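Q: I'm writing up a methods section and want to include an example of the input and output format. Could you take the sequence below and give the corresponding predicted structure tokens, formatted cleanly so I can copy it straight into the document?
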Amino acid sequence: LNTLDADSTARLLRDMLQQQGMFQRRPVVPIGSSSGPPFGNEVGTYNENPSTAASRKARRPQAQKPLALKAFSKLPSSQVGHLCIADEFNLQRMKEYYDRQKLKTSLEFDVLSVHKPAVDGNTKRDKDAFSIFLFKYGSVVFWGTPVSFKQVIEPDFMLAPRPNSEIAHAMEGRYPVELVATNFPVYCTYEIVYEEASEQSEISKQHFERTLKEMDHFQLPSRNSDELKLCISHALAQSAKIEYMELKIQELTQKCKPLPRELKDKGFVTIAERSLLQLRGEVLYYRLMLKSGSDLLDEPELFWEHEQLKPYFYVTKEFFDINARVRVLDAKLDASNEILGMLSDQFSQRHSSRLEWIVIWLVLVEVIMGALELMLDLKPW
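A: Here is the clean output for your methods example:
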């Protein structure tokens, strides 16, 4: 060792420790990319709305001790974004739209998959390659780079629809552009792990889970990355739809909130019966969407053929706290429904009371007319 310089000595010691399993090389995770705007201090917060990021961070589990990631190729992290822009998609019309653009499409398991493969089969160098998954209940999940996002997602889904836009006619109940632009998309990052052919191209559930929890980052093996993308996209699409429902149910809660106080202070409410019925209709609509009226929370049919992917779906679903968020929404709808139901009963009682008074006045008029007949000896009318 005395005949070696400092750098050679360090390398020799490192190799000795590595052979004994006491040293593990950790790759440098890229924090920025020259192809788009810089990432934030934490991977996965790229260009994200501050309120959305804050609420999502509050839902995240506490970070565990630093994780030694598997070795992967020097590939800058790409983005996976999810958004919800409409009540429902006509997937067949959307498929025809993308077919005319010479993109690779597939419609199965009630999901439309749209792909632009890398030119040379290697997504490390092709920044225009992307994958889009469109779900019937109006959610979109996008896998790609900032370049492909601006080329595809922004003109089709984020910006105001162009006159005579074909894809706009395939959307039912499209949400306002301002609402979508303010709250979506929500980003994470991902990378395709290109391992040596001699190594097993597989990522364990535990490794996948810890990478996601610690860094908002998906690592996908190159061997079955397309199937895993579809599997994860199901959970992301559910999260996007629930994100929209959280916004609308919060608005509904704010509308119902003043009614109990007004009833307490005045003994009556000034809301019109038509407005009350509209609020009850909103409650029933969102409750139906959360329950049996939609396949939003059903287990994807994909797992009938790819049962081995199911753990990755539930890890992603747990990370975004989908079940807990649904329970919160259900509780808010219960509270709003109880308030509106009580007021609806009051309106019914008021209506019954009005009918009773009408009957009383009719009887009184009949009595008066009978008395006049007797007094004036008039013939019946």
